[in-house]
Amino acid sequence: MQELGAVIIIRELETILKQLVLDKGQASGSVGESSGMQTSTLETPKCDYGTSDDDTAMKNTDKDASSENNLHLVEGGKKDNALRRYELLVESGLAESLIEACIGNACELLQSNFGREVIYEVVTGGTGVLGQKFSDKLDNLHEAIASLGALPRSEESEEEHIFENFHSSRTIRKLVLDCPAFAATLWKAALKGKAEIWAQGHSSKVVSAFLESSDSEVRDLAKTELQGLVDSGALKVAETRHLKKED
Could you tell me where the Polar residues compositional bias lies (predicted)? Predict the structure, then answer.
């Protein structure tokens, strides 16, 4: 009965997924709350042995049913969290629908208080189940966000650019710091040769993140162009241990 209940909830979630991630009033208080859906479901659990539980779950799905049950049943006859996460997100089709919803509504999600958290979890959740199963779709999500960043700033438009909006600028900054693959896509598509335009205001948080990244490849992408802005005082960068070491 629990399995059947999960399937029913997932099917209902799929029909209102866009409303849920956009935090629409008509979706709240219904299936979303009753199912206990949270963006943290996408997070990869920590593992002390260098391999995530999600990786283990992916490998074991190819084994026969009896060995799978033996491997993934824990004390009390319950499935472990990694297998349940894989079944609920991947096998149900919910994760794929969620990624597609993020691609199709990236601008609106990034600029909403709840939606930006969904975008962040989906993009960074790619290190676990999502990255192994849907790497191409996650690349498409990176490109969708980068294409929004590549749009020119318009003084006449009432719509804020995603680099200048309070919510989206901070979310994109976090993604640059935490997801090197996304950072590389964003730099090449939206910021290379244009960084000076975005060196002030909310957008400066996005630009400075490239030099503050703990990933040397991300820093190297932007260092040549950004160092001149830092030296001239046009761009403020928080002093980090990475910058100190390079100096």
Answer: 27-43
Q: Which residues contact 185 (CB under 8 A, 6 or more apart)?
A: 139, 142, 143, 146
- Count Cβ atoms below 10 Å from residue 220 Cβ, excluding itself: 12
Evaluate the CA torsion angle 19, 39, 183, 244 in order and state its sign: positive
What end-to-end distance do the CA atoms of the chain give, in Å?
A: 62
Q: Which residues pair with 74 in a beta bridge?
A: 78
- Provide CB contacts within 8 A for 149, sequence distance 6+: 162, 163, 172, 186, 189, 190, 191, 206
Cβ pair 163, 169 in contact under 8 A? yes
Render pLDDT for 77-103 as a digit per residue (tens, 0 to 9). Answer: 566 777 777 777 777 778 888 899 999
| Spatial distance between the Cα atoms of 96 and 92, rounded to a whole number of angstroms | 9
Q: Report pTM.
A: 0.70
Distance between CA atoms of residues 33 and 52, nearest Å: 28
* DSSP output for 126-185: GGTHHHHH-HHHHHHHHHHHHHHHTSPP-SS-SSPPTTTSHHHHHHHHHHHHH-HHHHHH
Q: What is the dihedral of CA 5, 125, 25, 7, to 10 degrees?
A: -10
